[in-house]
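Supplementary Text 2. Reproducibility record for the structural model of the 612-residue chain.

All settings were left at their defaults, and a single model was retained for analysis rather than an ensemble. We include the record here because the model underlies the residue-level annotations in Supplementary Table 4.
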Amino acid sequence: MVRIFTVLLQILAGVFSLRLFRITRSKRVWIFISTAVFMMAIQRSFSFYIMLNTKTIDTPYQFGEYITFYIAILMLFGIAGLYPLFNSLNKSNHKMEESENKYRTLLENLPQCIFLKHPDLTYMSSNNNFARDVGINPSEVQGKTDFDFFSRDVAERIRENDLEVFAHGVMVDSELEFMKDGETCFIHTTKIPLKNSDDEITGLLVVYCDITDQKKSQAEHEKLQEQMHQAQKLDGLGVLAGSIAHDFNNLLTGVLGNTYLAVKDLPESSPVRESIIEIENAANRAAELTNQMLVYSGRAQYMLKPVNLGVTMRDLRDLINASISEKIEIEFDISPNIPSVNADPSQIRQIILNLTTNAAEAIGENKGIIRIAVGRKKCVKSYLQQSLINIKHLEEGEYIYIQVADTGCGFNQEDTMKLFEPFHSTKFGGRGLGLAAVLGIARMHKAGIIVSSKANEGSTFTILLRESEELNETNKSIPHRTRDLSELKGNGTILLVDDERIVRQVAERLIGMAGFTVMSASNGLEAIGLYQRYAGKIDCVLLDMTMPLMTGEEVLRELRELDKDVKIILSSGYNEADVKAHLKVDKPVGFLQKPYSYRKLGTALHDMINAD
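Retained model, structure tokens:
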């Protein structure tokens, strides 16, 4: 019996050892143990077979069999006791393999480039993205250095950053700029020190991603923001210039009116007469200056009509050639069959002449070339967003362009906006209103201005105008026929409404000289009261647009409710088109821009009173 149990126990021990071999995957230890146990089982089986056949059992042999039996029991329990331990180890190893595979899958599928470095700054391993980025196989990464993947300058900067991480033992975020295939590239890098249980740094984990596209987008966004800021700045300067010009025109109305009255009252022999005439001339020059400020603000007087820029350019060709130095070669490039644009012809001519003059001054006494082109082009949104003004009015589509390019001194891009600021000039004695006027005219026409230039490489100015469309009636200006002073006499009652005392005083006397009776009011409420009190006796109302308490538009609506046929002449320091564009009235009204002369005032009153 002992022999039979011994054999069975040894066989069980062998089975367990094989199981342990499968669990632990040991290639030596458990093969040896399994082989030994199975050999012992075979030997016991063979001995048992001989014993049964010979029927010989001696005492020493029997004693040995018992010893073998106990050894087999010990082996069985020993191996069986090790089984749970090794089974647990197997499960742990299996979980570790699964975890490693998960992390490896994660690393390989992350968009970032990831790698490990030894303390000597050689590479341990990397994910596929890094290997692909540097152009090698992942198995070839180990043992490489930064000098194997990057230029010497870039590699030295990377190593300097690595050494900083090893020195301080903290995570470091940084950005690296370098050249790749002729283009500037940017990467964002995160470097994390790897430490053992003794807090010693054993390596470096590096994660980086390419942020070149992000940087380009950010740069484009910042450029657009800067353009918007500059456009808002120019708009703000335009509003300021327009407000100053408006208020100044009120004052000039008083100055010019009083000088006219003074000269008229003085005898020809008066020694004061010449001085007053000089004052009048100076005031007229001041009025021209304020008109230029209104041009910059986009609120000057203008008259829109279909204009063919090709014809306009051909008409200006001789004038431009005559006014530019012979050292400068002028090239004209005028496309045929250009559609017309809605524009004021005189203002468009002013743009061309101002840009040409600016180009000639940029070349100076040197030899150079000015190229003036007119044509048609399709503009996309990204191009139109480069405009200095009117970005919100510029939609993708076909535009007619005026382009003036020169080979002059040029300027830095950051100085572009200063060139268009009023009274900013780089020339000694310059008033700085040439390009400011170009900007204002473009603003009035809702046109775009795109400027490109580099210092010492010349400049290009491009004006973009929409093709002609049917004109809005409120933007049409109907010029008054110039009349002789003898024709200005009339009769009737005029209600003068203006908050400026000096304007009222001058206008009262000028209207009186024309033969009319005058009633004056300093605000809208007073004017409405007078009109109600003298209903049917007032033939015309001369109404200022900018007043406290009630605006001119509010007064106009109230008067129309009292009398739908009331005749009204609006007066303002701003231009007619700008004023009428904001009016919401059905019936037409007259307009008189400040500062006005006796002739203009009398003509406006005569035309309005005698209108059907």
